[in-house]
Amino acid sequence: MEKIVGDAHMDREPSKQELQRQMEQTRASLAETLGEIKETISQEVSTVKNTVSGVLDYREEFQKEPLVWSLGALSAGFALGYTLGYAHKNAKGGKQAPVIAFADSMVNELSTVGKGLVMPALNAKIKELFGLEFSDLLEQIGGSAKKRASKKRTKRSTSKRTKLHVTRKKKKTT
C-alpha cells in the first residue's frame, strides 16, 4: 500500500510553496558549495604564490652565496657539455641518435642566443674595460684557424700524393 501512496504522491504536481522551498534549498546549497570552492581556490593560489616567489628569489640567494651558485652552474654546464660531447664523439656511421639531435639543436639555439644577446653585451663591456673589439678579435682567431685547417689539408693531400707517386715508381723499377 505504501507504493500506491508513494505513486499517488508522485503523480500530483508540487505546490508553489514546495517549489519555492526546493529552490531556496538549492540556492543555499549552491552558495555553500561556491563558498567552499572560493576558499579552496584562494588557499591554492596562496600556496602557488609562495612556491613561485621562493623559486624566483634566486637572485637574492645568489647574492647571499655567489660562489656556491657559480660553482653549481659551472658544474652543471661542464657535466652537460661533457655528456653531449661524449655522445657526439661516440656517434658511429652518421647515425642521428636522439642525444646527438638534442645536442645539435641545443648548440644551434645557444649559438643564436649568444650571437644575439650575449655577444653584444660582452663586446660592449670588454670595449669599455679594455678598449678592445672582442668580436673583431674572435673573427681574426676564427679566420686564422680556418687558414691553418686548409693548409693542413693541402699538406696532407700533397704528402699522400707524394707517397703514392714514390710507391708507383718503386713498383715500376722492380
Could you give a short description of this structure?
With 174 residues, this protein is mostly helical.
Main traits of this protein?
3 domains, about 90% helix, disordered N terminus, mainly alpha, about 170 residues
Secondary-structure map with pairings?
Elements: H1 2-11, H2 16-56, H3 58-64, H4 66-89, H5 98-130, H6 134-173
Helix pairs in contact: 3-4
Give a written overview of the molecule.
This protein is elongated. The N terminus is likely disordered. It has 174 residues and is mainly alpha-helical. The longest helix is centred in the first third of the chain and has 41 residues. Helix 3 crosses helix 4. The relative contact order is 0.02. The protein has six helices and no strands. The chain folds into three domains: 54 residues; 67 residues, no CATH class; 42 residues.
